[in-house]
Known about the structure:
The protein is built from no helices and 16 strands. The chain is mainly beta. The strands form three sheets. The chain has an eight-stranded antiparallel β-barrel with strand order 1-5-6-8-9-10-11-14. The protein has a three-stranded antiparallel sheet with strand order 2-13-12, with no helix packed on it. It has a two-stranded antiparallel sheet with strand order 15-16. It is elongated and about 80 Å long.
Amino acid sequence: MGLNLGYCSGAFNNCPTRGMGSELAAIDIEIPKGPMGVGYIRPDQLQDGVSQNGFVAGIETGYDFKISGQSGKGWMLGYFLNGSLSTTLGKAAFPGSYRYPDENNDAAPSAVHFEEKLLIKNKGFWSTGLRFGPLVRRVFFYAKSGFMMTRTGISLERSTLTRLVVPSRVYWFKGAVLGVGADFQVSPVFLMGIDITANICGKKKATVAFTDLGGAVLVNLRPVYTQVLLTLKYKFPLRARLNKPSAVSSVYRPSW
């Protein structure tokens, strides 16, 4: 069993959007230090690519066993189960504008441009699978693969210019986990390691509703996350029985 801590980056690629419902125009805008104006937003112009960055921390458990070789060398096979919390955050911007009369109220309205932003927050991961690789003295080098799930929330970043209401939504993404890493045995029962993992999620359609406008945005999300983790693990010793005539009934096997 162990702990992990590291950096996580993500990207939502190939996520074209389209608007649904009304044309999302002629919105009343609350303009600071000015009269009430008419605003326009264009969520269909939401940027296609969104990047995310943050940190992850979690726990992991598993079991590794040697399938061939002698003491201190050979081939290892194991399974793992990991869970972590994440602070990974990204923002997707789409443009808008508002117009209001000038002070004399007799000229053509002027336009001021702004951007609304969707917040895309990753809330955590869990994964399970197998890992396999060579044991070289006290270092286990491995490649791993398996199944993963991640939770991602989508909401509208609050703005002082608009009265848009977008309910927060949380989506579960399923996918595959691929990675490489190494565990270094620093004592008979403690391991330190580094783990590099790619989480490849399936595509999901997310609907972001603009309640005040009678419309919505349909977003096709296909996230990919990369994690670089430092790990600290405790290895439960195996109990090995000794044959007679030794008076010692059992000992702890301190290493691979």
